Automatic annotation (TrEMBL):
<dbReference type="Pfam" id="PF00067">
    <property type="entry name" value="p450"/>
</dbReference>
<dbReference type="InterPro" id="IPR036396">
    <property type="entry name" value="Cyt_P450_sf"/>
</dbReference>
<dbReference type="InterPro" id="IPR001128">
    <property type="entry name" value="Cyt_P450"/>
</dbReference>
<dbReference type="InterPro" id="IPR017972">
    <property type="entry name" value="Cyt_P450_CS"/>
</dbReference>
<protein>
    <submittedName>
        <fullName>Cytochrome P450</fullName>
    </submittedName>
</protein>
<dbReference type="InterPro" id="IPR002397">
    <property type="entry name" value="Cyt_P450_B"/>
</dbReference>
<keyword id="KW-0560">Oxidoreductase</keyword>
<comment type="similarity">
    <text>Belongs to the cytochrome P450 family.</text>
</comment>
<keyword id="KW-0349">Heme</keyword>
<keyword id="KW-0408">Iron</keyword>
<keyword id="KW-0503">Monooxygenase</keyword>
<keyword id="KW-0479">Metal-binding</keyword>
Length: 396
């Protein structure tokens, strides 16, 4: 059986690598060689992806064991929420979920709307052309996630830089990634110390209260890593999704015009953007099989790694009619962008809210928005887990 090199090249931002479609039909479970030199089973079909994402026989905690196959240059931190299995994961996630309740997400909407309007004001004041990535898409999510945690606005640029490094595949050396992880952990530890002395109405202050009043529920390392996880998961993916979403809308002017005429269509547009845009090199985080598990066309042996290709699953024609067409009117849109099972994205509703606000506000306030360059020539961000846009030049 052939072993392919992963990740596959993608010719266009937001589009899944063409190799995914071929594999989904011919070798839906196939061995791949990762940048680290390790091998894994890549899974491209929708149903197989559901199994890998939700079956407890596929472990995230096992990826932290020394020598375990990995996708990124350094092993995952075992105290990170996404590196845990139940019951530890259940305990920590229950506490972390306090920051992402419907009430807290709703409370963050005015902040998100205010930040969005301020960024648009700056774009309009400066005038075209502008880069929608640097001028908007990267700035909004870091503002919202820092507001959620209680991190000072002055630290946003530094935090964003650490996250860029942490989500690297080949763009940064292992030593640089370790240094960024350590710097972010030290930053959160200092933020925790500050919030202990002077609590606020933020997630870190709330988790400190849980930690200090119920000492056996959350360790200090877990508390610090929760802050790191929220920052890592809440910035770059959302920033890239916003940029790719506007690229998609600009490539589909009829759908954009319809949204402007009928703003009530926003929910369907955002849901379809989440399905349509191939945000990462493949999708989900790597898992290790705890026992032999049979998938559609292959058996994953105990100890072997498996990589769910969510970008491929979201274009599976067995589930999505005409999957390569951007269709905001699509019904029963069961995309897997936020994952499935116990590791379903903790901040899914927050990310969706931010995308809704960003799409709605720009569509409403910048009716003449158009590309300032040939969009077919835009580059794909390489060397990272998240395949966002390096830039999106626009005019109006």
């Amino acid at each position: 059986m052939s072993i392919l090199r992963f990740p596959f090249p993608s010719a266009y931002p937001g589009e899944p690598a063409p190799e995914f479609a071929r594999l989904r039909e011919t070798e839906p479970v196939v061995r791949v060689l990762l940048p680290t030199g390790d091998t894994a089973w890549l899974v491209t079909g929708y149903e197989d992806n559901r199994t890998v994402l939700s079956d407890p026989r596929f472990s995230r905690a096992a990826t932290t064991v020394p020598g375990a196959p990995r996708l990124q240059p350094i092993p995952p931190d075992p105290t990170a929420l996404f590196s845990m299995d139940p019951p530890a994961h259940t305990r920590v996630r229950r506490l972390a979920s306090r920051g992402f309740t419907p009430g807290r997400v709703a409370a963050l909407r005015p902040t998100t709307e205010r930040e969005t309007d301020q960024l648009i004001d700056e774009l309009l004041e400066t005038g075209p052309p502008a880069d929608l990535v640097a001028g908007f898409a990267r700035r909004l999510p870091i503002a919202v996630i820092c507001e959620l945690l209680g991190a000072p606005a002055a630290d946003r640029t530094q935090i964003a830089g650490w996250v860029d490094v942490l989500l690297s595949l080949t763009a940064f050396a292992p030593a640089e990634i370790r240094a960024a992880r350590m710097a972010l952990k030290q930053y959160i530890a200092q933020l925790v110390a500050t919030k202990r002395r002077s609590p606020g109405d933020d997630l870190i202050s709330e988790l400190i209260k849980v930690r200090d009043e119920q000492n056996d529920r959350l360790s200090e390392d877990e508390l610090i890593m929760l802050g790191c996880t929220v920052l890592t998961g809440g910035f770059l993916t959302t920033a890239s999704q916003i940029a790719l979403s506007w690229l998609c809308l600009l490539r589909h002017p009829a759908e954009l015009a319809r949204l402007r005429r009928e703003p009530d269509l926003l929910d369907g547009v955002v849901t379809e953007l989440l399905r349509y845009n191939a945000l990462t090199t493949g999708g989900g985080l790597i898992r290790i099989a705890l026992e032999d598990v049979r998938l559609s066309t292959a058996t994953i042996a105990a100890g072997e790694a498996v990589l769910p290709a969510i970008a491929a699953a979201n274009r599976d024609p067995r589930v999505f009619a005409d999957p390569d067409r951007f269709d905001p009117a699509r019904t029963d849109n069961r995309h897997l962008t936020f994952g499935l099972g116990v590791h379903y994205c903790l901040g899914a509703q927050l990310a969706k809210m931010e995308l809704e606000v960003a799409v709605n506000a720009i569509a409403r306030r910048m009716p003449g928005l158009r590309p300032a360059t040939d969009v077919t020539l835009l580059g794909v961000q390489s060397g990272h887990l998240v395949r966002g846009l390096p830039e999106l030049p626009v005019s109006w």
